[in-house]
Amino acid sequence: MSNLHVNSRYEKRDKRRKTNIVLNTLITIVTLLILVIGYQLMFGGSDAGKTAKYNEQPDIKLANEQNSNEKAIADNEEEIDKTDKELDENSVKEADSEEIVDEETITEDPFEQATITEGEPGSGIVETIENPGWSPVGTTQTEHNSTNYTKGSKDWNEMTKALSYATGIPESDMIIWFLGNNGGPNDAVGTISPKDQSVKYKVYITWVENQGWKPTKIEKVN
């Protein structure tokens, strides 16, 4: 009887131990599953987001490149329009001053080919200057029936160019003491000096049809 009782208790303990092993194993498996599922939920979603974001990058890059190309095209068209406008303005300026003497020509030595004669004592003329190389300064006038001595008129502006051309005094540095008729409808005379008044000239000019005003003689006066 005693042995049977011992064996029965041993069997019960053995069954309980096996049951605990099975339960512990199941608990471990369930815990591992929970950990794996939790990891996937926590980090797998982030990776998926990164993947989605990465997949979107080519589209974003393509959109940026397209915007850059459109901006470059717009800038290029604006530059072309600006260049065309400048060319048109230059063409107008060239047409307006096609035959008019420019500033560089004016500032060249105006007396290089000149004949200089000393004035008579007491005449108030220091010397007389005549230059066979002088030519008309050009004109934008299609008709010239009479001379307009009003300041700012085409005649006035073109006569001023002739005075500057003959003497080498730039218009921006010129004082016009007198500019008026010299006895004929196509003859004029101007008395000018530089702004420092270091010298004073009396310049005789004449109108050449379709070519503008031409200097004929300069008198350097006291």
Automatic annotation (TrEMBL):
InterPro entries assigned to the protein according to its UniProt record, in alphabetical order: DUF1510
Domain of life (superkingdom): Bacteria
Domain DUF1510: 129-220
Alphabetical keyword list: Membrane, Transmembrane, Transmembrane helix
Region of interest: Disordered: 76-103
Biased composition (Basic and acidic residues): 82-95
Segments passing through the bilayer: 21-42
Listed name of the protein: YrrS family protein
Organism: Metabacillus rhizolycopersici
